[in-house]
Amino acid sequence: MASAGWSIEKRAPLRTDTFSRDNENVPETGCLSIVVLGASGDLAKKKTFPALFHLYRQGFLKPDEVHIFGYARTKISDEELRSRIHGYLTPCKGASTEHTEDVLKFLQLIKYVSGSYDTEEGFRSLDSAISEHEISKNSAGGSSRRLFYFALPPSVYPSVSKMIKNCCMNKSDRGGWTRIVVEKPFGKDLASAEELSSQIGELFDEPQIYRIDHYLGKELVQNMLVLRFANRFFLPLWNRDNIANVQIVFREDFGTEGRGGYFDEYGIIRDIMQNHLLQVLCLVAMEKPVSLKPEHIRDEKVKVLQSVVPIKDEEVVLGQYVGYTDDSTVPDNSSTPTFATVILRLHNERWEGVPFILKAGKALNSRKAEIRVQFKDVPGDIFRCQKQGRNEFVIRLQPPEAIYMKLTVKQPGLEMSTVQSELDLSYGQRYQGVVIPEAYERLILDTIRGDQQHFVRRDELKAAWEIFTPLLHRIEDGEFKLIPYKPGSRGPAEADELLERAGYVQTHGYIWIPPTL
Ligand SMILES: NC(=O)C1=CN([C@@H]2O[C@H](COP(=O)(O)OP(=O)(O)OC[C@H]3O[C@@H](n4cnc5c(N)ncnc54)[C@H](OP(=O)(O)O)[C@@H]3O)[C@@H](O)[C@H]2O)C=CC1
Ligand SMILES: O=C1O[C@H](COP(=O)(O)O)[C@@H](O)[C@H](O)[C@H]1O
Which end of the chain is more exposed for a tag (fewer CB within 10 A), N or C? Predict the structure, then answer.
């Protein structure tokens, strides 16, 4: 099979060239305790525990080293937590009949501790449970590693960080580490994010803090730097001389689905744009980093964010789907956008004049996330084919993963006419049998390995909030009209009009159809 050499099981050994580690001699073996805080919640059962299971299944979490702790206020037993999680532990693709046995063995690694998020009592019990596990594994030698995953509402991050610092730090005399993984949304605007960063920053050093954005763990997002900097094709074309506009799109074909209360507090810009789409934009727009060291990459991302100019009101379209407020957890008069199109403009040598169009919406007519780079018209076109469409380079993040290039070719046949076609790298077809890891799986593994490349640095976060905070405040002050749209539609027509004004030229009559096997 062509793809036999590429799979997560055959990852290269641990890289040694990162310099963001907590200390120089960070052990990668020894007792590992993973604590999922908020273990009773939605993210924990749907994403965190399943990702840990897949890492366990693939041998990245070794039963003789690792123990997993769930922590939350809900009073449940170990068994109750295990049965809540059980149904979400689906077989890894290509898994054998040993799945059931693996699930049972994995579940036995999990222990539950109940306690509050702001008093020491619960965290002292947690520390005892971790220490007990560490003592029992001492015979295996090595140091202790403690990873705390915050699957929690951000409102409790400061108190939980303080409790960990006071009660649960690694105490091994043979080295080791304590790391925390924090979920988005990290703050609600610049001031609150900075306050949160300062509170956590007083307790933990930056190399101990992993701000997770799961889009950075997606296969095709991780492919961006390789595509851009390992291919001669793109190097001379990737600039304002050749590119007319870039779209970064997130669409979901379902609404807020039981998360209405959370969503209404944040809205689509904070939920998707300020983090996921902006991170993708950085990878599309950044300059080549000095090396692949996490700090070199993140330095370049920060420069992109700092070059974004203030967003203009006329380059924003906001919408809310009809029926959004039917959710009992959403106020009837909610003015939270569930759809947004926002144009960002970068003031730098490479991108001056190129609109970066960010689009995100819930309850639309399809589910997809993609980057669409549209090239300018061919000058002096002797085939008169502009009307058929421009060249586009599309990276479909999901689903299904694909990279394709829309281009004009001769229509096969006797006549000399042109037609739109594509060069297509559809992953399902090209990499048959290859398991593409879940984003969370990959990122949790990075946290254990101490690789911060795919995590958001504090200054990056600050620069991201600087871009959106003025707009968010204007929205909250009622300066924008929310356009209602029908669930299952493309969203407000005004968004397509904005795209057209920004110079996007749609290719009529052409649709890319993912190849089937
Ligand atoms: N769910 C998802 O798909 C995604 C979630 N996230 C982020 O992950 C984090 C966790 O999300 P999710 O699991 O959905 O959240 P939940 O609302 O399910 O909360 C997780 C747990 O936190 C505790 N909790 C809930 N509300 C409060 C509160 N007001 N004060 C103290 N504790 C509370 C509850 O545990 P108990 O009462 O037992 O202590 C709950 O089980 C959030 O930051 C979220 O934004 C990010 C991406 C996707
Ligand atoms: O962070 C979030 O992401 C999900 C979409 O993630 P995906 O990996 O399925 O694309 C989104 O549904 C949710 O609202 C948001 O909080």
Answer: C
> How confident is residue 22, by pLDDT bands cut at 50, 70 and 90?
very low
Please, are residues 134 and 172 in contact by the beta-carbon 8 Å criterion?
Answer: yes
Cα of 235 from ligand 2 centre, angstroms? 32
3-state SS, one letter per residue, for 161-199: HHHHHHHCCCCCCCCEEEEEEECCCCCCCHHHHHHHHHH
Average pLDDT over residues 236-263: 95
Q: What is the pLDDT of residue 1?
A: 34
The two three-digit tokens of residue 248, written as one number: 């970064």
Do β-strands 316-321 and 176-182 pair in parallel, antiparallel, or remain unpaired?
Answer: unpaired
d(CA 379, CA 376): 9
Q: At what angle do helices 157-167 and 120-137 cross, to 10 degrees?
A: 50
Q: Does the CB atom of residue 157 touch ligand 1 within 6 A? A: no
* Average confidence (pLDDT) over 182-195: 95
Q: Which residue lies with its CA nearest to atom 3 of ligand 2?
A: 272
What value does the mean pLDDT take over residues 106-119? Answer: 97
At residue 281, does pLDDT exceed 50? yes
The residue contributing the CA closest to ligand 1 atom 1 is: 43
Select from 272, 336, 339, 362 the residue to mutate for testing ligand 2; criterion: most ligand atoms less than 8 Å from CB: 272
Alpha helical stretches, state H, 41-179: 42-43, 49-57, 78-86, 99-108, 120-137, 157-167
Closest C-alpha to ligand 1, atom 11 = 43
Q: Does ligand 2 come within 6 angstroms of the Cβ of 271? A: yes
CB atoms within 10 A of CB 483: 16
347 is catalytic: no
What is the pLDDT at residue 513?
Answer: 81
Pairing of strands 209-211, 176-182: parallel
In ligand 1, which atom is closest to the CA atom of 214? 47
Query: Residue 397: which residues within 8 A CB-CB, separation 6 or more?
Result: 215, 218, 220, 221, 280, 368, 369, 370, 371
Read off the pLDDT of residues 494-507 as tens digits, 9 standing for 90 and up.
999 999 999 999 88
The ipTM value here is 0.94
Question: Tokens for 189?
Answer: 């605007």
**Active-site residue, from 54, 67, 276, 454:** 276
Residue 21: the pLDDT is: 43
Among the bound ligands, name the one nearest to the CA of residue 274.
Answer: 2
pTM score of the predicted model: 0.92
The finding on whether 117 has its CB within 6 A of some atom of ligand 1 is yes
